[in-house]
Amino acid sequence: MVPEFAVLGHPNEGKSSVVSTLTEDDQIKVSPIPGETRVSRNYTITIDGKDILRFVDTPGFQVPRQTLAWFKAFDGDKAKIVSQFIDAFKNDPFFADECELLSPVARGAGIIYVVDGARPVRDDDLAEMEILRLTGQARMAIINSKTDQKDYTQDWKLEFRKHFNSIRVFNSNRVNFTERIKMLESLKAIDQEWESVLSRVILAFKEDWQKRNRLVTALMIQTIEKSLSFSISESITSSSDQEEIKEKLNEKYQAHIKDLENKMFKQIRALFKHHLFEYHLPEYSILKHDLFSKKTWEILGLTKEQLAVAGAVIGGTMGAVIDTAFAGHTLGVFTVLGGVLGAGSALFGGKKITQKKRAGIWFGGDKLKLGPNKNLQFLYILIDRALIYYSHIINRPHGKRDLSDQPGNTDTKKKGYSTGFTASQRNVCAKFFKVVTGRSFIKEKTIMSKFEELIESVLNDISEKV
Questions:
Q1: Residues whose CB falls within 8 Å of the CB of residue 232, separated by 6 or more in sequence, listed in order
Q2: What's the CATH number for 4-190?
Q3: Is 134 left (phi over 0), alpha (psi -120 to 50) or beta?
Q4: Smallest Cα–Cα separation from 370: which of 261, 226, 249, 255?
Q5: How much is the CA Rg of the chain, to the nearest whole Å?
Q6: Which residues of 140-168 are buried (b: 16+ CB within 10 A; e: fewer)?
Q7: Which positions ≥6 away from 361 have C-beta within 8 Å?
Q8: Which residues pair with 8 in a beta bridge?
Q9: Which of 34, 181, 291, 298 is the most buried (most CB within 10 A)?
Q10: Helix, strand and coil in the chain, % to nearest 5
């Protein structure tokens, strides 16, 4: 049996937004216009090809006081009160919406009643609550606060305690995976008969989330490996304008890396079922800045002190760090250029350059070659940007349609996740970097799996803290 819940309420209270968020379906039409939903629609959650849970988005109540009058006057079998009401008024246009919204209740669906906590309780609301109580079905009330300007939550709770088995504040514009699980846990409590089946649903949700995190881990590692190992070259002759070629190579190099990252972002977005044509990053997000911009490299990655220690782990093979800049704007390729030893390679790069390399470009015969990128900080920049994007995605409710977000921190301190890595985690990253860039003479067979475990553990931590 697939558990089914009808989402009921007054028009324009956020029912469709709640269903969209619960089902991770951002293609459900959400509109500020009252009465947009006129026909009940089923939205089934499927995991691994199996239907596990169904929500029904219903029209809003239109004539609750007249409907309640009929319910109070009904003297037949109370277990059939809903089906008898539908039979009595199925051809009456006056009660058309009430018949439509009560249809899933008649077939045994649990009730989720949604109200806007930013407005006061009205007489129509009291009538709706009493109707739902008289249905005899297991029911939960949700306070969906749509704004922060007014809050009548306590008034709603006072009335809800008279009519419902469970009450929950659930802002469909802000909730995340953790809140969705808490919602399902609350649904278990509204009727003991739901407990067993909903426990299996919750377990399926959690296992599916872990599966997604493992897939994100694989996407991140694949993209990072390709980005660190990518190189580009172009033939030259004695008459070539080498500065022009260098600039074009730099542009192509950056475009390729950014394309790899954007493809990863799209795949992460798809994994978490955000399918709308355009997804807007929060205005404060560091991802608004170009991957190779000075701002990005100031805000993300390790601190100078952490990078110095990491450079010591890499050793003398790391080389010097050069930021190629010209034409009045920074095009930071940060290409490894030489044999400065130890921590100085990462922190005080550019002090020693071999005679065969110049300005971030490797000379070899009749070609100019750019890359692969062997700056350890680049690894952490890529990690941070992927984790930040992941955090944005899992915190973006599917029922949210506006573009407003809470203002972000605008200071210049490090904002990435990598600065919070432990010394042992940074050591794993350094060894991974050496293996990927071919700087490890002795291949550590376990380092790839250790790096994979590290990334997945960080993803899980982010999920738990949202």
A1: 249, 252, 253, 256, 369, 370, 371
A2: 3.40.50.300
A3: alpha
A4: 249
A5: 29
A6: bbbbbbbeeeeebeeebeebbeebbbbbb
A7: 242, 246, 249, 335, 368, 369, 370
A8: 113
A9: 291
A10: 50, 10, 40
Q: Which amino acid is at 317?
A: T
C-alpha to C-alpha distance for 261 and 227, rounded to whole angstroms = 8
Asked whether the predicted pLDDT for residue 146 surpasses 60, the reply is yes
pLDDT interval class at 355 (50, 70, 90): very low
| Domain extent listing, the chain | 4-190, 213-465
Token look-up 């034409």 returns 327
206/28: higher pLDDT = 206
Element (H, E) at 413: none
Residue 332 has pLDDT above 50, yes or no: no
Q: Which of 268, 327, 266 is nearest to 459 (CA)?
A: 268
Supply the DSSP string of 298-318, one letter for each residue. HHSS--HHHHHHHHHHH-GGG
For residues 386, 392, 396, 398, the Cα torsion angle rounded to the nearest 10 degrees is -20
DSSP state, residue 162: T
* pLDDT of 419: 93
Contact 276, 26 (CB under 8 A): yes
Evaluated on CA atoms 369, 372, 373, 374, the torsion sign reads negative
Mean pLDDT along residues 59-84: 96
The larger pLDDT score, comparing residue 105 to residue 245, is at: 105
Is 277 exposed, middle or buried, given 0-12, 13-18 or 19+ CB atoms closer than 10 A? exposed
Instruction: Supply 313's token pair.
Output: 């782990």
Decide: residue 398, CB within 10 A, 0-12 exposed, 13-18 middle, 19+ buried: buried
For 182-206, the pLDDT digits (tens) are 888 999 888 888 899 999 999 999 9
Position 398 confidence tier, pLDDT thresholds 50, 70, 90: confident
> Which pLDDT does position 320 carry in this prediction?
34
How much is the pTM?
Answer: 0.83
| Percentage with pLDDT > 70 across the chain | 80
The answer to whether 409 touches 415, Cβ cutoff 8 Å, is yes
How far is C-alpha 99 from the geometric centre of its chain's CA atoms? Answer: 37
Lowest mean pLDDT among 10-14, 354-358, 440-444: 354-358
- CA separation for the pair 129, 140 (Å, rounded): 11
Instruction: Identify the pLDDT of residue 242.
Output: 79
